[in-house]
Design goal:
By secondary structure, the protein is an alpha/beta fold. The chain has twelve helices and 13 strands. It has helices at 2-13, 25-36, 52-62, 76-85, 101-106, 108-129, 163-181, 214-223, 250-265, 286-297, 321-327, 335-354, and strands at 16-20, 40-44, 68-69, 89-94, 133-139, 186-192, 194-196, 229-232, 244-245, 247-249, 273-278, 284-285, 303-306. The longest helix has 22 residues, at 108-129.
Length: 355
């Protein structure tokens, strides 16, 4: 009996996983978590939005090289070459996508072609090469302005607020339809709320020098890259008038992908297509986040309060009961720890830039 268990564990944890978008923010952290839990990993990132330097940093952190295929996944033939070179791929985590909301509004066709086209190519290869375990990177943007809080996975999806959000809704539907038409294939849809922070080693973190997300804007303001920042609105129906979001540490998100793959390979999920919220379940206002950062850094942040910004959701936070119950997932970082790792990373980036 012990011998059988040992064989099973080796099969699961030595599986080769393809991580698309592996040189991006969440992809790089997920590679680290996968390798730390025994998986063999290869990456596919054409570096149009990812960073070759990130792959170098991941390799340094792990003490082993992670091979990246600089392939445009919206090119079907090029995508196929990855699978031809790696016939032993056991699972896929599909991060690769454009993710800027404003850019998606300005260039919707580019977003549909890249985000939807790459997903279709990946699924076609998964079918052809028999890769039956897939995790799809989705987003809480699929909910829009939810009617009830906290948001559960059964909440109705509202009309997408942007072409980016539309690609996530379409991507989820494509995955669900693929599983229906291909029995035996399993896809896990993970809806992230607001990823923040960095690996505690400070070797990897968010590399985007022109971020649109709040936390890197906060840290860039604190270190002097930005002269100041704006809080958009303080007259909402919330605790302090600012918008409420569910911030979740990037390593907590990364580990959820590892767990999702393990459960998929073990065939331990209720259906072939399952969806999970990834959030702490706690809503934090913009002003509360700023106060948490100021407490961690010992700095007074230079910000002003401006008018509301069109398109902003007033408040959203997750019900994460399903992920805790079925994946055995548990967020490990509170808002203070999130801000500490984000600030540590920003200081390292500043030193590297100055050298």
């Amino acid at each position: 009996m012990l011998y059988i268990c040992a064989v099973k564990l080796q099969y699961i944890y030595m599986s080769k996983i393809l991580v698309t978008g592996g040189c991006g923010y969440i992809g790089s952290h997920t590679i680290v978590d996968l390798v730390d839990h025994g998986f063999e990993v290869i990456s596919a990132d054409n570096l149009s939005r990812g960073f070759g330097e990130m792959n170098d940093k991941v390799s340094k952190l792990l003490g082993k090289s992670i091979h990246n295929y600089a392939v445009d996944l919206s090119d079907a033939a090029a995508t196929r070459t990855i699978f031809e070179a790696n016939p032993d791929i056991e699972g896929i985590i599909h991060f690769a996508a454009y993710k800027s909301v404003p850019e998606s509004v300005d260039a919707p066709l580019m977003y549909y072609k890249n985000n939807i086209g790459s997903l279709i190519n990946i699924l076609e290869c998964a079918k052809e090469f028999g890769v039956k375990n897939v995790v799809f990177s989705s987003s809480c943007s699929v909910y829009g302005n939810a009617d009830t809080l906290p948001v559960t996975e059964t909440a109705p999806l509202k009309e997408a607020e942007s072409p980016y959000a539309a690609t996530k809704q379409m991507g989820e539907q494509i995955c669900a339809d693929f599983v229906k038409g291909n029995p035996g294939f399993k896809i896990v849809l993970l809806r992230y709320f607001n990823p923040v922070g960095a690996h505690e080693s400070t070797l990897i973190g968010e590399m985007n020098q022109r971020p649109e997300n709040l936390v890197p804007i906060v840290t860039q303001t604190a270190i002097g890259i930005r002269s100041g920042m704006t809080v958009f609105g303080n007259d909402y129906d919330t605790r302090d008038g600012s918008c409420v979001r569910d911030y979740i540490h990037v390593m907590d998100i990364a580990h959820a992908h590892t767990l999702a793959l393990q459960k998929s390979i073990e065939n331990a999920l209720p259906s072939g297509c399952e969806v999970f919220n990834l959030g702490t379940g706690e809503g934090v206002t913009v002003l509360e986040l700023i106060k948490a950062f100021e407490s961690v850094s010992g700095l007074k942040l230079n910000y002003n309060v401006g008018p509301r910004r069109a398109g902003d959701v007033i408040k959203v936070y997750a019900d994460n009961t399903k992920a805790k119950t079925l994946l055995g997932w548990q967020p490990g970082y509170d808002i203070t720890a999130m801000m500490q790792t984000a600030w540590n990373w920003q200081q390292v980036l500043a030193k590297e830039t100055a050298q």
